[in-house]
């Protein structure tokens, strides 16, 4: 199970591009 922080960080990285 992925931690909420991992999902948030990943989302930010994708949105940051």
From TrEMBL:
Q: What parts of the sequence cross the membrane? A: none
Q: Where is the Cytochrome b561 domain?
A: 1-17
Alphabetically sorted, this entry's keywords are:
Electron transport, Membrane, Transmembrane, Transmembrane helix, Transport
- Location(s), subcellular: Membrane
Keyword Membrane present in the record's keywords: the answer is yes
Q: Which InterPro entries match?
A: Cyt_b561/ferric_Rdtase_TM
Where it mainly occurs, coarsely classed, is membrane
**What's in the GO CC field?**
membrane
Report what the protein is called.
Cytochrome b561 domain-containing protein
According to its UniProt entry, this protein's organism is Nymphaea colorata (pocket water lily)
């Amino acid at each position: 199970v992925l931690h909420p922080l991992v999902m948030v960080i990943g989302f930010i990285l994708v949105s940051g591009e």
